[in-house]
Amino acid sequence: MSLQQNSFASFVPEAVAEILAGKLQLQVSFEQSTCVKTTSGETIEGAHAVARYLCRLVPSSTLYGTNDLEKAEIDNWLDRSLASDFTTDGALKNLDSILLPRTYLVGYDVTLADLAVFAALKTENGSLKSYPNISRWFNFCSSLDSLKAVLKRHPQDEAQPRTKQADIGKFVELPGAEMGKVVTRFPPEASGYLHIGHAKAALLNQYYQQLFNGKLIMRFDDTNPDKEKVHFEEVIKEDVALLEIKPDHFSFTSDFFDKCLEYADQLIQKGLAYCDDTPADQMKKDRENRVESKNRNNSVETNMALWKEMKCGTEKGTTYCLRAKMDMQCDNGCMRDPTLYRSKLEPHPRTGDKYKVYPTYDFACPIVDSLEGVTHALRTTEYHDRDDQYFWILDKLELRKPYIYEYSRLNLQNTVLSKRKLTWFVDSGIVTGWEDPRFPTVRGVLRRGMTVAGLKQFIASQGSSRSVVTMEWDKIWACNRKVIDPIAPRYTALEKDCIVPLTLEGAKVECKTIPKHPKNPEVGEKKVWLGPKVFLEGADAELLQVGELVTLINWGNVVIKKINRDNEGRVTSLEGSVDSENTDFRNTLKLTWLADVPDVVLTPAVCVQFDHIISKGVLKPEEDFKNFVNYDSMSTQEMLGDPALRDLKKGDIIQLQRRGFFICDQPYSPPSVHSSKETPCTLFLIPDGHTKAMPTSGGKRRKSTDPLLEIQQPAKKQRGPSAIAEEETDKKEEVPAGKNSTAATAAKAAEEAVPVPPTQGEAPAQTPAPSKAELEGLEKEIKEQGDKVRQLKSSGAEKSVVDAEAKEGGGGKAKQKPPQEKQPSSGKQEGAKKTEEKKGAAKVEQEQGKKEKEDQAKKDEGKKVTRLGLEATKEENTSEWYSQIITKAEMIEYYDVSGCYILRPWAFAIWERIQAFFDAEIRKLGVENAYFPMFVSRGALEKEKTHIADFAPEVAWVTRSGSTELAEPIAIRPTSETVMYPTFARWVQSHRDLPIKINQWCNVVRWEFKHPQPFLRTREFLWQEGHTAYEKKTDAEVEVMVILDLYRRVYEELLAIPVVPGKKTEKEKFAGGDYTTTIEAFISASGRGIQGATSHHLGQNFSKMFNIQFEVPGKEGEHDFAYQNSWGLTTRTIGVMTMVHGDNTGLILPPPVACVQVVVIPCGIKASMTEKEKAAVLDTCEAFVARLCAAEIRCRGDMRDNYSPGWKFNHWELKGVPLRVEIGPNDVKNSQFVAIPRDTGEKIAVGNDVAVARVKELLAEMYKRLFNKAKQELDSHIVITENWDEFYSKLDHKNLILAPYCGECEDIIKKKTTRDEPSEPGAPAMGAKALCIPFKQPKDITPGMLCVRPDCNKAANRGVSFMALKKCIICSKSAPVVDKLFHDGSGLATLGD
After folding, report:
1. For the segment 761-808, what is each residue's pLDDT rounded down to a tens digit?
2. pTM for this entry
3. Is 1111 a catalytic residue?
4. Catalytic site residue from 200, 287, 311, 409
5. I want to staple 1327 with a disulfide (CB 3.0 to 4.6 A). Which of 50, 407, 976, 1314 is the partner?
6. Could you confirm whether 834 is annotated as catalytic?
C-alpha cells in the first residue's frame, strides 16, 4: 500500500491499517498518492476507496459496518466529509445535534465514518469549542491509541510543546560533503520581496557553507522576463544583507543563456527534444491523460528547423515550445515531456532583445548548478517529483551531478507565501505594499517588530528536517520575545479617552531618574515626573475602593480616600494620599500612571494592532484564498504616553507597561509650521507568542476588559455567528463570580440602577431611597443567610436544600433594591433612580462580596496560561495523565518508530541507581557481567521449540543487507537463552566448570503488540538478564529465591513499592522452564496489578536442547545435564514507580533512586535589593548545595535568574524531586532554611546547625510515607472470597480477588468474566487472567473446599488472586493474594518473561 507522503489526506487508510495491523499483512510505503495494489495486480486509488478495500479484506472487522444499512450510512458520511461546505457553521451545527445522543457516528464502534469525519475536522480543531458534542466526540477519537499512533506521524496536526529545551533544530549531515569543497546556492526569483520561507532557504544554505568552510552562491533566477524586475534584485540583496548573509558570489541564470541554447541543440540532435505547438491548455490535459503530442515523432531536421524559427522569434516560431522527450507513460507527471524552452518576445532586463526564447527554471537549474560547481542543491520537498527530471537532464547532457538534499517548506497558518498571491494583495491595495507589517516578507515582519536575531533563532530551531508542518506564528514571535525582552526599555501609556485624575494629598512636583529596564541597567535611565495630580486608566479606577492601598509603579503606595462618580456610576475622579512609609508591595494592585505636571507635556501616541490577513488557519488546496481575506485586519487606539516617548526613533523597540511590546514606526514630531498640528508617535504592537492578551488594566485581580483590548486581540468588526457568541460569553465572564454569588448580584443590581432618561413628556419616577438603618439591617440579614448557604454547601447538603436557602437570600437582596414602577407598554423606562439609591443598593452587595472577590483575586493572582503542568488527572484519565507526566517531567522523548522511546537523563539516572544496587548484590553471589550479541540465527532460536513458540509473534527479523536479501534471516534477541547456551555448552566439560553465573545489561526487542506504553510495554527495552548453570538442582533452586528476594528489595527498598512474591501458573510460566517465580505490584489508580520481575528455574530443559552436560564426579564416563536458571528485571520498574507514586502535580521520586534528592532555590530576591544583599542569598544557597553534596546527598541548586521562584517550584515538583529547600534573605539572617517534602508540601523550618542530619531524616521519613501509603492501597484492595457471585461483583471495583482454585479452570474463568466492551478506548475486552500463586497464603486450603467456579466440582488445591478494572479482570493461581494483574490493551503486560 502506498500512502501520500507528508499529507493528512492519507489519514483514513493509515488509521485503518493501524487498527487492522494484526489481521492484515501490508507493505506500506510513502509516495506521491494513496493507492493499493491488489493480488490480481489492479490498482485502487483514493484514500476512501483504499480504506473500503482494506476493510473488506477483513470480514470480521466492524470498520465498514455490520450490515447493509450501516454500510450505506458510512458511505454517506464518507461522501459528506469530502464536501467543500462540510466545515461551515450550518454543517457543524447539524453534526453537533447528530452527535448529541451518540458515541459513534454509525453503530456501536469506530467505523470509517468516524475516521473520515475526524480527518475532515482535524484542521478545524481550534474552532470546535462552540460545538460541545463535536468537541466531546473529537477528543474521544483523539484518545484512541490506534489514532494516536497515526497522528504522531503527522506532527503538523498535533499540538506540540512542551518542555523547555535548547531552541535549535536538527541539521542533517550532507551526503558526500567534504571540508572546504561544499558549494551551495540560493536561487531567488527577482519577482518580489523575500519572505520568511526564502529566509529559511538562504540561512540553511549559509549554515552548510559555514559548517564545511565552503562557498555560497547567490544566483538570481531570471529565466522569465515577464516577472524579472531590477528593483526586486536590489531589494533582495538588501534583505539578504539584513539577514546577515554574505554570499561568496553573485550570479544570474541569464549569464548561462548561451550555454543553455547549446545544450538544447544537443538534445534535439540526439532525438531527445522536439518542438510542439499544442496549445497550453490542451497540453496540460494530454499530459494528465498520458496522450502523446502529434509532433513527438517529428524528425530531427524538422525539429531543428522549427527550433530555428523559435530562436528568431518569427510568427510561426512564437507558437511553438521546446519539450523534452522523456516518458509520457511515467507515473511521475513531471517526466511526461516537460517544457524546456518557451517563446517570449518581451525584452529581458539584462539581455534586452538578444533572445526570443527563454529556458524554463527546471531546464536551466540543473545545467547552471553543474556549471557553477554546486555540490549540494538544497530544495524543499515540494520539488521531490522534479528530481527525476533534474537528473535526466544532467544524464543526457553528460554533466556532473550535484547532490540534492530536501528539507521541509515553511508553512504558516493564516498565511500565503506564493508570490503570485502576495502580489495580488499589493495590487489590490489591501496592504500598503511589500513592507506592510501584515505581510510575511522579511521586511514586513521586521517592520512589525521582528528582530534579525529572533528570525535567525526561529529558522535555526526548525533545522533541516524533512517533516512538513504547518506552524502557528506564535512560535516565531516567542523566539523574538526572548531577544527583545532583556533589552526593551519600559515606558507608560494610557488610553486617551479613558483616563481618570487622581489627586494626591501631600505629593509635590518633583522629577526622579529611574532605570528604563528593571533588570538591565545598561538599557539606560529616564526621567519620571511626580506630582499632586496623576492620571490612571479608567478601567483601573473602576476597581478601586475607598480605603484600599494600591501601588503606583515606579513611585510607591497610595491610599484611596474618595471616589467620585457621575450620574451613570462611572468614576470621574479619585482622591488619595501618598503612603511613603509603607514599602510592602506584595498584595496591592499595581497601577500604571502619568503625572499631570505644568510645563511637562505628555506624548500623544497611536497604538496599532494587526490581525492575520487570511482568516482561516489552513487553506485546503481547492479553496480560493480570496474568499478568506480579512479586510479589517488593522485597529488603532489613541494613547497618551510619558514625555520620554518623544525621544523614540523609527525602529526602536519598547515595552509599554502592562500592554506589551511595541516598535516605533513613526516618531513623534512637534507641531508643523504649516498646519500647527503635531504628529503623534505611531507604535505597532509586537506579538509575543502568548495565546492570551497581556493584561492592560485592572491589575491581577481582574480579567482584561480594558477597551484597549482591541489593541491586544484581533479586530472584531467583521464577525460570524460563532464569534459573536464567544464575544457575548466573554462579556458575561467579566463578572468574576457565578450566578448565585453576591458579587454577580451586586453587579446586576448596579447595572439595573443606572438611570435611563424618561421618554419625552414623561416625568421621572420618584422612589424614596432606603434609609441607612434599613440598609444595615438588610446587609446583616443577607450576610447571615449567605453564611448559612455556605455552611450547607460545605457540609454536603442536598442541592434542593441549598437552592431553597439561596433563593431565600435572593429575596433579601431584592428588598435592597428600591421598588420599581411598572414598565409602560412602549418598553421604555418610566423613570430614573437617583445615584445615591444605586450606590446604596450596590454597596451592600459589594461589601458582602468583597471577601469572596479578594479571595478569588488571590487565587488568580499571578496565574499564567501555560501548558507546562499536567492537564489530565490521575483519577479521571489515567492513560493521558501517564502520557503527560513522563513527557513533561522529562522522562522520555517520543521516537519516530512506534513502541520505541528515548530515555532522557532524568529517567536513565533512576535505571542507573537500580543497576548500581543490583549489580553490587549479584557480585556478592559470584555473578559476573558479560555481553553477548543481539543477533540470533534462526537455527539457534528454533532449537527449543516450546520456547520460540511463545516468543514467535514478538521476534523482529533482519532480512536485508542494503538492497541484498540475506541468505537466512537473522533474529534480534527477544531474550538471550538461545544466544548464550550454545556458548555454555562449549564452556562446560566437567563439574569443575560449574557453576556458571553470567549476567548482562542490554536491550531486547519484542515487536508484536498494538498498544505501546512507555516503560510498561515497549518494543525495545533495557534490562538485566542473568543466566546460570549448576551441577545440583537444589543449588539452582536456592538461587531462584535469592534473586527473587533481590528483586523484592529493588521495589521495596529503592522504589518504595510493596510487592507480592509468588509462583506463576503453568499457563503463565516462562516458556520452556520448569517454573517461574514473580513479584507483583499494584497500581491503585487503575486498579491493576503489574508484574515487577521474574526469576525462572529452567530445570534441564535447555541444557538438554543445547547439550550443556558434564561428567558426573566419581562416575567416570557418566554425564548429566546442568540445572539452569534465568532471571530478569527491566526498565518497567520506572513506569511502575511513576504509576504508583505520581500525583496530579507530577512525579514523586523515592529518595533512594532520585537523580536529585534535594533542590535548593533562592527566594525573595527583589529588584529593590542591593547587589550585596542578592549575593548573600545566592552565596548561601551555593554553600548549602556544596555542604549537602559533601555529605553524599544528591543536591542541585537552581540559580537561574530568568525564571521566578514560583516557576521553579512547579518545575521541580513536576520532576518529582523529593525535597525542595527555599532560602531567602530572612533565612540568611536567621541561619535557617525552609524544607518542603514533595509528597506533603509541608513547610518545615530547619536551622543550619542541623542541616545535614535533618535533611537525611526528612528523606528517610518521606520514603517511609511513600511505602506505607502504597502498602495501605494494596492491602485495602485485597478481597478474599470463596463465592462466585461475590467474586464476580467485586471485579468491577478495582479489587484483587483471592479465591480457591482447582488449577484447571483458568481459561474457563477468563471466558466467563470477559465482558462485551473494553474498559477503555482502544483496549480489547479481557477476562480474569492468572497471576501468581502467592507464597504467603492468607488461609489454608481445607478439605471439602471447592474451586470458586460454580460449574467446577473439583477440590481446590491452591488459592488464586484475581483483579478487575471494570471490564478487565486478572487472576492468579494462588489462594488469596494478589498476583500478576495486567491488561493487554493498556500495555500493563509482562516483559520480564
Report:
1. 334 444 455 555 666 666 667 767 776 766 665 555 555 666 666 655
2. 0.44
3. no
4. 409
5. 1314
6. no
